[in-house]
Design brief:
alpha/beta, 2 domains, eight-stranded mixed sheet, 13 helices, about 20% strand, globular, binds 5-methylcytosine, binds fe (ii) ion
């Protein structure tokens, strides 16, 4: 497979990209003269100057809950806690096929929109571990199209749920890649701390990654992230540890955040914000002004801490819309975090690509470079800025050197004074 006349982010000019045996073999500037020959029989796609990027990543989603919005009831208060309650009712009716069918549909939506890597939490506070077994099967069945990392996620707590720790450990034995937790949901602060020790002990015992739902609450007293970072630091595990959500950081005093930032940086842990979901869930107990409840992404990035954006929900109790469009997640996150300077928008693409790859510990195998797996997407746009601005379609998704999805971009005509013409919705600067 060969792509011709494509643009690369933050590089001048056009390039040809050659792939062979599932790997990138050459990336060559077209100007001043094209000096690469086409090999006979190689499939060629002309990019016509369009942008290519490494595939999008969703580092935080719940595939087991996908497409269950309104089941058994709609979330009326819009809070995290009503969502957890309603899901616990729906959870009683799960079957393997139910989970697989819904998750497979959500994964198709991802694949169609250029996502090739997802990290999905899967609820382990279910004595039958039905959802986990379903997603373990789907992970293997979908491997050619998308990589799925599974986090064993104790939605209703570890010490606060009967056999919570045993179920979590069983999920690791069955093959989940990461251990999760939810300290702010445990009955007491002490249980929260205890739950984190359990998570770190299990990750050590089974050599797994960690991704904690951490301080997802508008309570400025919820400070479990300091314990996550300290355990990561003391056990030298920072690069393998992620704190997801951390929305309470939005409400911390600046004095505390200044102290905390040093620890976060030293620990080397990663952060995932889920801007769409948390703009929806947070601030629900506020009158006006209402807090946005997104963690402090600009400050984390400024401090040199790795951070990225996830979707979290696809048509479920916590967010009833969306489905696989990471450019929409990025757009929402950039607006929600006021990261709308020209450079911030351009660099923002890292929040759904390279930064997420570091968080998932897949960065060695990720990116458009000779010798890496030939995974990339092409967008109906010439620049990142324009693609983010107008949510450009992903026209091609190529994985291991093979086309796995394509989308025809929309064409628009304008009719005026008896004449009609195509209009161009792009704007590149
Ligand atoms: N569960 C949870 O604890 N928090 C969330 N944001 C979702 C599920 C989606
Ligand atoms: Fe989540």
């Amino acid at each position: 497979m060969r792509l011709e006349n494509v643009r690369l982010h933050q590089q001048e000019g056009l390039f040809d990209i050659d792939m062979d045996n599932g790997m990138f073999t050459a990336i060559t500037p077209v100007a001043p003269v094209r000096n690469t020959a086409r090999n006979e029989g190689v499939e060629v796609i002309d990019g016509h100057g369009r942008l290519v990027l490494p595939p999008f990543i969703d580092p935080h989603v719940h595939l087991d809950t996908a497409l269950t919005a309104g089941e058994t009831v709609w979330n009326r208060s819009g809070t995290l806690f009503e969502g957890i309650h309603n899901w616990s009712e729906r959870k009683k009716t799960l079957t393997r096929d139910d989970v697989k069918n819904r998750a497979a549909k959500a994964l198709e939506w991802y694949i169609a929109q250029g996502v090739q890597h997802v990290r999905s939490h899967v609820d382990t506070t279910d004595p039958s571990l039905t959802a986990l077994q379903a997603l373990l099967e789907l992970r293997e069945e979908m491997r050619e199209l998308i990589d799925i990392q599974l986090v064993a996620f104790p939605q209703e707590g570890i010490p606060s749920f009967p056999k919570g720790a045993e179920l979590l450990e069983e999920a690791l034995k069955l093959g989940a890649e990461a251990v999760g937790g939810i300290p702010h949901f445990e009955y007491t602060r002490e249980y929260g701390i205890e739950s984190l020790k359990t998570v770190f002990d299990l990750a050590g015992k089974y050599d797994r990654l960690i991704d904690i739902h951490c301080d997802e609450i508008d309570d400025d007293q919820s400070r479990f992230v300091e314990t996550v970072a300290t355990l990561a630091l003391e056990r030298a595990m920072g690069q393998r540890v992620t704190a997801s959500h951390t929305t309470a950081m939005h409400s911390y005093s600046n004095a505390y955040v200044v102290k905390l930032m040093r620890l976060l940086k030293n620990s080397g842990i990663h952060f995932i914000a889920n801007p769409v979901t948390n703009l929806n869930l947070q601030g629900r107990m506020d009158s006006y002004p209402k807090r946005r409840g997104i963690t402090r992404i600009p400050e984390l990035l400024e401090a040199g801490v790795n951070a990225c954006f996830g979707q979290d929900d696809i048509v479920d109790q916590w967010f009833p819309m969306q489905g696989g469009n990471m450019l929409l997640v990025l757009f929402t996150g950039l607006v929600g975090c006021q990261l709308t300077g020209f450079d911030q928008i351009n660099r923002g693409i890292d929040l759904i690509t390279h930064n997420s790859a570091r968080c998932l510990n897949i960065h060695d195998q990720y990116g458009i470079a000779v010798g890496k797996p030939a995974n990339l997407i092409m967008l109906d746009s010439e620049s990142v800025f324009d693609a983010v601005r107008r949510q450009a379609a992903v026209t091609h998704s190529i994985r291991r050197g093979k086309l796995i999805a394509s989308t025809e971009p929309a064409r628009t005509r304008l009719y005026h004074s008896g004449r009609s013409r195509d209009i161009d919705l792009s704007w590149s600067i």
